[in-house]
Design a protein that fits this description.
47 helices, globular, six-stranded parallel sheet
């Protein structure tokens, strides 16, 4: 038993009944739930199998069972120690609980639904009395379900095209979403709504109700949602009438102009406006009241009468001054004269709103100054104007067209539902939603709900805020005033999983009034320091409001510290100003990483271990960059990530092998296997080309391989081919008699892939391969030994779900910094937390043409076929607002979850874009109240954390640095007296001076919004064809290059000059030219075909993270690494060099197993450092003008070009070294490890090196020259011979 606070004791000891516990972060809600169960068990209120405990995750269920097990055993021990004889009955009863515990109903919602189906599924029968459930069904993996859903929706759309009478509204949908080639966009919309619907209890019934409602609206002429429009306008009108006297008083008290006469004149003009609008508001109110009450007249008359009243604004003078006598006086900015002016602006908001909304009816060509700012105090959607300017007949006709499209959409969803069921039946599968819906249907039957109602004395639901509407409905069917729900609505962050926080809020409000249950609150946080809690409170009190973001952060929601003692450490906010466009190449990601590093360094200096630190960010890509940056900086870190299965080079290779084992004629996959560095393959492109060209005939690659095995001339290559075929045929012969699990294990053995990694990478690779094997078995075990079906399904998954199919990979080394997403951190805690947020470009507002809401139904925009135009409808405007506010609410809750993970130290690192900050903070200062209304969030546009943090921090007494960045310093009129945090602004110049990386990055902004910026980020290393490569989705067919998705090809030949060229494509010239090749491919000998491999740029992280085998090619790569990272100034002695090598081992640059080979290169490195070329490099490097492994990309014309059409191929390469000397001109150096021992002298070696590599280095020089840099010298450095070759 644990020590409980009074509020916790009240929860634990409360009688059984409906109860909702609103438990703040760190309040021990799960512990309280377990304690309540134990208390009731010990009291004999129930047995352990008489209760249902629903948890959010399997781990939570397991941990809860373990806690209960330990507590029961501890209680038994205590009773035995007291008096075994006296307590014998209680001891016996508790031992019985231990026996029952393994089969107790302590499980996730999905597991409980599966149990209901197993226990009571037999009562579901069809019309003939037969059971409708197939007990052999399995839950399909999400990757396969995605394919099935896509197929179902495609089938549904195709069936609509095949209808005898083509639905015109369906064609309208295809035009709204299609691009003339396919209906992919329409399919995505249908599936998105379909999945959301399936989180609801009776989604097909809901569709029926929606269809009935729109049919009724069309028949009665009712305009959907116009009631809401007029309700919103009524709010403005009522505010105008209520403000009238206050506004007059405020105008009289304020000082607008410094000259008394002018000030008096302005006041009178404003008072005239108030008088005129008083009459206008009265007319509007009367019209609104009539609209709400009149039932005897038709909708057309009601709407016309109301809209006419709204349009009757007081008329202003036109340019000639003859239209009226009202002057729309400009307002004064609040900061100009006096505080009273701001009060006027706020009270004037209803007048400004109506003037802007209907200005054309008052002959206002342009809003007077200040009206927009004043109108912002009213949360009114101005784009509703267009919906009030049309005649009733036009509006109703537009609505009917929209309703017809909704009807077609509903029909598409129904057909998708049917197709989805059919496809799942064919493969004997189901999804988790099926489990819930079937369980719900079962529990609607008396036999089932009576059984569980009698069985469960009490029902416990943990993390209730994450439940869906369907899950809530399931519990309601068999509960009977006995549900104990616990959670924190402020931590509801799974909207994408269809969690419904409104259920929690609704029950909280209901139970607070004493209706149907009781409400308890746990507000004491036992996790974080008081300083952290105060910081969270001051932010959430401003941004969490019921009207705007669903939750009111009041006294009941505030976080309280159990002792109120201070730790002495306050949260720290690191604000980094992003450079202006063109100011610097540094990216926001780099700035963020450096900011994170400073905080990690601070925590380590305070005595914290690396394992105590956690880095949180919203995006996985940010975390990968941060982890790499920290590793480079000497702080070991690990990131838990879901990695795309087919992005991983090792896994992709195994997948290719499985596919080609099923069909050896798949050349593209066969080539990938041959190039892979397996024990039985690892052929180079040159060797594959020799095998391919040997027969002189166009055959499948496997036929060429078998022919070379029989007749090949190169005995060594022939032996390798024989070994390759022995292994390949052996694996194929096993297909008939083995399942996927055994096949994969044999592949691992034959490829020797587990032994290919050394050092610290070995365990990670082994885990990755085991996870992939488990993934294959879980997805494809039902196929048994039918490897053909496995292969086909695997290929479809690979093609269609290239990025979605993912596995989780984690380095579990103990003393490392953990990097994880904010969502993943829920339920965890760490001594030190750094929350990192890069400033991203503003995401455009919701632009979906169709939106869906459970209560409001479908919202679709107007589509005009004649001019292909789309406009907003009333429904789309309001539903878009609702969705935007819901998204901001979710983001605010995510911030709350993130900040409350910290126990002792909390840092926030954010990159601030000046334009964004100015807009957000200026908007914040318009709001006099210290909380933000819904219009504040709607006005921001962007959906990012800075839009929450900045306005909250900017109004505290510590906000000056942020205000200066935003260039609004001095605006602060309503500061919050709070200084319990530090705010530091990092100097961007220091960051720039500290990094000289020339690598480029695709910004994280590109991940979410499609933007691009230059900078750096770690990239995955491409594997050069010299070393053997994983080739995916490419094929080599004699002298052809073939794309995986087409049978067309281009022939490779050699022209009279000995250069490669492509023959004209027989059907469509120039359409199949390779998109990208490497520079080294251009300079290879005449037998190497030109294959379009996508080779990515190597970086420090690639060297650090990738084990290099000590093959000949591996040695060459390793030597290049040494030339890249060894300091040539520290080579005076072998001891100096040894120290460098060991530092590289500690940093993870090389592996300890490679130390011996590295030390052998001392003389070669020293010779280069002491050479004339090396000395020039050192001098340039000291001036910051040396660039190592500089990537280049350029295009070259292909020989297949004609006079009419010029074909190009993109060429990518990496220059080993380029340095710029004092004259501003560049020197290029390429390291070469060629073995030229067969040549007799220096001259011969120079000639051979020139012959092999001059083309390559000349390409480099031309690419650099094209960028505007003059290349004065080009050198090859022959590493084996310490010789310079000038090209």
């Amino acid at each position: 038993m644990i020590n409980l606070t009074n509020e916790q004791k009240a929860v634990v000891n409360a009688p059984i009944g409906n109860m909702l516990v609103s438990a703040a972060a760190g309040s021990g809600k799960t512990s309280v739930l377990v304690e309540r169960i134990l208390t009731k068990l010990i009291q004999g209120a129930f047995n352990i199998d008489d209760i249902l405990v629903v948890t959010f995750t399997r781990d939570a269920a397991t941990n809860m069972q373990m806690k209960i097990d330990r507590a029961i055993r501890q209680r038994i021990t205590e009773l035995c120690n007291e008096d075994r004889t006296k307590n014998a009955d209680e001891i016996s009863r508790l031992k019985l609980q231990l026996d029952k515990l393994p089969n107790a109903y302590i499980q996730t919602f999905n597991s409980f639904c599966a149990r209901v189906i197993k226990e009571k599924g037999y009562i579901l029968e069809d019309s003939e009395g037969k059971s409708v459930l197939d007990p052999s069904r399995i839950i399909l993996d999400e990757n396969e379900l995605t394919i099935v859903r896509n197929k179902a929706c495609t089938n549904a759309i195709e069936s609509k095209y095949k209808d005898d009478i083509l639905d015109e509204s369906f064609l309208t949908l295809t035009k709204m979403f299609g691009d003339g080639r396919d209906d992919v966009n329409l399919s995505e919309v249908v599936l998105g709504i379909f999945l959301k619907l399936r989180s609801l209890p009776d989604y097909l019934g809901l569709l029926t109700n929606i269809q009935s409602q729109i049919n009724e609206d069309d028949s009665t002429g009712r305009l959907s949602l116009y009631d809401i429009v007029f309700e919103d306008i009524s709010v403005v009108v009522d505010a105008g009438l209520a403000n009238s006297d206050k506004l007059r008083s405020a105008i009289s008290s304020a000082t607008f102009l410094s000259t008394p006469a002018s000030d008096k004149k302005k006041k009178q003009a404003l008072l005239d406006i108030v008088d005129a609008y008083d009459l206008y508001f009265l007319r509007c109110k009367k019209a609104m009241d009539e609209y709400a009450s009149l039932t005897e007249i038709d909708e057309s008359s009601k709407l016309k009468r109301t809209v006419d009243a709204l349009h009757s604004l007081p008329v202003a003078k036109d340019k000639e001054g003859i239209s009226g006598n009202l002057k729309y006086e400009a307002l004064t900015k609040s900061k100009d004269i006096s505080d009273g002016v701001n009060t006027v602006n706020e009270l004037f908001a209803p007048i400004a709103t109506m003037a802007i909304l209907f200005k054309q009816y008052a002959n206002i060509e342009k809003n007077p100054n200040g009206y927009n700012g004043s109108a912002q105090y009213m949360a009114f959607p101005m784009d509703i104007r267009d919906c009030l300017d049309s005649e009733y007949d036009v509006l109703i006709e537009e609505q009917k067209r929209r309703h017809a499209c909704v009807s077609s959409l509903i029909e598409l969803i129904r057909r998708t539902d049917k197709e989805y069921a059919v496809l799942k039946d064919k493969i004997g599968g189901m999804d988790y939603s099926d489990q819930e819906h079937i369980a719900y249907k079962i529990l609607l039957l008396e036999e089932a709900y009576s059984y569980y109602r009698q069985k469960f004395v009490e029902i416990y639901i943990d993390e209730y805020q994450d439940n869906s509407s369907l899950q809530d409905a399931i519990v309601d069917e068999f509960s009977s005033n006995n549900v104990f729900r616990v959670g924190d609505v402020k931590q509801s962050i799974y909207k994408f999983r269809y969690a419904n926080p409104y259920m929690f809020i609704s029950r909280m409000n209901e139970y607070a009034n004493g209706t149907n249950g009781s409400l308890s609150t746990l507000s004491c946080n036992f996790r974080s320091t008081r300083e952290i809690l105060d910081f969270v409170n001051v932010i959430c009190e401003q941004v969490m409001t019921e009207k705007a973001t669903e939750i009111e952060y009041d006294e009941k929601q505030r976080l309280n510290h159990p002792t109120n003692e201070k730790s002495g450490f306050v949260p720290n906010v690191v604000a980094i100003e992003a450079p202006q466009k063109g100011e610097s190449d540094v990216t926001n990601i780099e700035l963020m990483c450096e900011g994170v590093r400073t905080q990690v360094e601070k925590f380590v200096s305070m005595g914290y271990e690396l394992r105590d630190i956690c880095i949180l960010s919203r995006k996985k890509k940010s975390l990968a960059s941060i982890s790499d940056y920290l590793n480079q900086s000497g702080f070991d870190s690990t990131v838990t990530e879901s990695k795309s299965i087919f992005e991983d080079v090792d896994i992709r290779g195994i997948a290719n092998l499985i596919i080609v084992l099923n069909n050896e004629l798949r050349d593209e996959y066969m080539l990938g296997v041959m190039l892979s560095p397996y024990k039985f393959s690892n052929f180079s492109l040159e060797e594959v080309a020799r095998i391919r060209l040997f027969s002189g005939r166009t055959n499948n690659l496997i036929e060429n391989i078998r022919l070379y095995e029989a007749m090949g001339q190169d005995s060594k290559l022939r032996q390798r081919v024989q070994h390759f075929l022995e292994v390949f045929d052996d694996l194929r012969n096993n297909l008939i008699m083995t399942d996927i699990g055994r096949l994969v294990e044999k592949i691992y053995i034959k490829t020797n892939i587990r032994a290919s990694a050394v050092g610290k990478d070995a365990s990670l690779l082994s885990k990755k391969l085991n996870v992939f094997k488990e993934w294959l078995c879980s997805n494809f075990s039902r196929y048994g030994s039918d490897i053909a079906s496995v292969s086909n399904c695997l290929e479809q998954t690979k093609i269609k779900l290239k990025y979605e199919a993912a596995i989780t990979i984690e380095d579990t080394k103990s003393n490392k910094i953990r990097c994880m997403t904010c969502h993943s951190s829920k339920g965890l805690e760490f001594p030190c937390v750094v929350f990192a947020e890069p400033s991203t470009k503003e995401k455009a507002e919701l632009t979906e043409t169709i939106l869906f809401d459970e209560k409001m139904g479908f919202a679709i925009k107007n589509y005009y076929d004649e001019d292909v135009r789309i406009t907003n409808s009333v429904e789309s405007i309001y539903l878009k607002q609702k969705e935007t506010l819901a998204n901001y609410s979710e983001l605010i809750r995510l911030l709350y979850v993130t900040l409350t993970r910290a126990k002792e130290q909390l840092s926030i690192v954010t990159v601030i874009r000046q334009a964004q900050a100015k807009k957000v903070i200026s908007q914040a200062f318009l709001a006099k109240q210290l909380t933000y209304d819904k219009f504040f969030w709607l006005s921001l546009g962007a959906l990012n954390i800075n839009n929450i943090l900045l306005p909250a921090l900017a109004r505290t007494s510590m906000a000056s640095p942020v205000a200066k960045i935003a260039q609004v310093d001095g605006y602060v009129e309503y500061p919050i007296d709070f200084n319990a945090f530090t705010l530091e602004c990092l100097d961007i110049k220091q960051i720039l001076d500290g990094d000289e990386s020339e690598e480029s990055e695709e910004s994280e902004e590109n991940e979410e919004y499609g933007g691009e910026e230059s900078g750096f980020s770690p990239s995955n290393a491409g594997i050069d064809s010299d070393n053997g490569a994983y080739a995916d989705d490419i094929s080599l067919k004699n002298s052809d290059v073939e794309n995986e998705t087409t049978n067309e090809s281009m022939a490779l030949g050699v022209n009279s000059d000995g250069k490669y060229f492509f023959d004209a494509y027989p059907y469509e010239s120039a359409t199949r030219a390779p998109f990208k090749i490497s520079v080294s491919q251009i300079s290879k000998n005449k037998q190497t075909p030109l294959v379009p491999l996508n080779l990515e740029v190597s970086s420090y992280d690639d060297y650090k993270d990738e084990a290099v085998l000590m093959t000949s090619a591996g040695k060459g790569t390793f030597i290049h690494k040494l030339f890249r990272f060894v300091d040539l100034n520290e080579l005076d002695s072998l001891e100096q060099y040894t120290s460098q090598v060991r530092r590289m081992i500690v940093n993870g640059t090389i592996f300890s197993s490679q130390e011996g080979f590295a030390l052998e290169q001392y003389q070669a490195l020293k010779a280069f450092g002491q050479s004339s070329l090396g000395c020039r490099l050192i001098s340039s490097d000291l001036n910051g003008k040396a660039f190592f492994e500089k990537p280049i990309v350029f295009s070259i014309p292909l020989e297949s070009s004609t006079n009419d059409v010029m074909d190009f191929s993109l060429v990518q390469g990496i220059i080993d070294l380029m340095f710029i000397e004092d004259d501003g001109k560049a020197v290029i150096v390429d390291y070469k490890t060629d073995n030229l021992d067969h040549l007799p002298d220096i001259e011969s070696r120079v000639k051979e090196a020139m012959n092999r590599h001059s083309t390559q280095i000349n390409c480099y020089a031309e690419a650099i020259a094209a960028s505007g840099i003059v290349v004065k010298e080009k050198y090859l450095w022959l590493v084996r011979y310490n010789e310079t070759v000038k090209v």
